[in-house]
Amino acid sequence: MASFNEETAMREPKKRERPTGSSKHDMEVLESEDSGIGLCGWLLVAFSILLMLATLPISIWMCIKIVKEYERAIIFRLGRILRGGAKGPGLFFILPCTDSFINVDMRTITFDIPPQEVLTKDSVTVSVDGVVYYRVQNATLAVANITNADAATRLLAQTTLRNVLGTKNLAEILSDREEIAHSMQSTLDDATDDWGIKVERVEIKDVKLPLQLQRAMAAEAEASREARAKVIAAEGEMNASRALKEASLVIAESPSALQLRYLQTLNTIAAEKNSTIIFPLPLEMMQGFMKH
Fold first, then answer.
1. Averaged pLDDT, 267-273
2. What ranges do the domains of the chain cover?
3. I need a labelling partner for 112 at 20 to 30 A (CA). Which of 28, 52, 170, 275 fits?
4. Residue 84: what are its φ and ψ, rounded to 5°?
């Protein structure tokens, strides 16, 4: 039995694991050497250099380029990326006939995810929007591996939002926004790694519920508050009745305490400026009349 399992494991194809330095490896492959342009390419480069020297100093304005602090330039020589990757910031030199370049903005870019109609796990349709913060981490991969990195990231963020929210209940969406945002960030960051893009942050802005569901939730919340209010009122009455019981026991032990209570009540009634004052007489005063 053990030999059969070993043979089966040997026959099964192994899963390909993604190397940790895949982005660096892809960049090294894209950055080809100048020797790869061939003999014809070298002749064109030599001709471009001679043409530049012959038209000095006018050609110097076409050869020297400036890249700002937040930009990087990807230089193509006869269609191949020059060895060394992105250039900048500062000055760099190109040949007017054989070289071309593309500027890449390295600053953090933010965009809004349009409201997405999502069907939750408990079959409730909600409209959710968000915001994504990302930046270009590798300018070479952002230019060579994808046509439009910004548009691709926006579309991927929309689909990721729908996929993540589709696995959540309505209660989880309303209460676990941070967890959902963290899950979206991890998914987007892994997917855009080959594009040279780093997703820094994802935030859920607003969750809009259907009008009928809002009314149902409001009615449920109101009923819950009323139930809690009734429970609190019942507990208060119970505590008050216990206090009155204890007070009655104390008054029963000392009849003079009842007379003092009568006087306190009379003082309270007199302070309220009432026209009619009822003065309770102790029953002991009436016992003599009742005997006669």
1. 67
2. 21-105, 109-211, 219-283
3. 170
4. 115, -15
**148-153-154 Cα angle (round to 5):** 105
pTM of full prediction above 0.85: no
- Read off the pLDDT of residues 72-105 as tens digits, 9 standing for 90 and up: 999 888 888 888 788 888 888 888 888 889 999 9
Give 198's contacts (C-beta < 8 A, 6+ positions apart).
Answer: 134, 135, 136, 137, 189, 192
CA-closest candidate to residue 199, choices 252, 146, 153: 153
The superfamily CATH assigns to domain 109-211 is: Band 7 domain (3.30.479.30)
Q: What is the DSSP letter of 277?
A: -
Helix (H) or strand (E) holding 134: strand 125-136
Distance CA 122, CA 111 (A): 29
CA distance 38 to 77: 12
- Percentages helix, strand, coil for the chain, rounded to the nearest 5? 55, 20, 25
Which residues lie below 8 Å from residue 64, measured CB to CB, with a gap of 6+? 91, 92, 93
How far apart CA 138 and CA 85 sit, in angstroms, is 9
pLDDT in tens, 233-248: 888 888 888 887 887 7
Pairing, β 109-119 against β 99-105 = unpaired
C-alpha span between 208 and 65 (Å, rounded): 50
CA 254 from centroid of its chain's CA atoms: 69
